[in-house]
Design brief:
The chain is mostly helical and about 70 residues long. About 70% of the residues lie in helices and about 0% in strands.
């Protein structure tokens, strides 16, 4: 069970990093500072990536907590 959770955690973390990098790429120089101070609405693929990132974060936290609980 521990091995399965560890593999799932690694896969989710890789997907999480990729989705965050895709979001940063779409915002120009989002790594350091954004030149635009205007309000933007997420639409289309950008919105799907944002929601997918939230799902991955929640999934990562659940898997991490389960892994710690089973190890104790």
């Amino acid at each position: 069970m521990q091995t399965t959770l560890a593999i799932a955690e690694i896969l989710v973390s890789i997907l999480l990093v990729l989705t965050v990098l895709l979001q940063v790429r779409g915002q120009g120089t989002g790594l350091f500072a954004s030149a635009e101070a205007t309000f933007r609405v997420r639409r289309g693929l950008e919105r799907v990536l944002f929601q997918f990132t939230i799902v991955l974060v929640v999934l990562f936290i659940i898997i991490s907590v389960l892994s710690v609980r089973l190890a104790a």
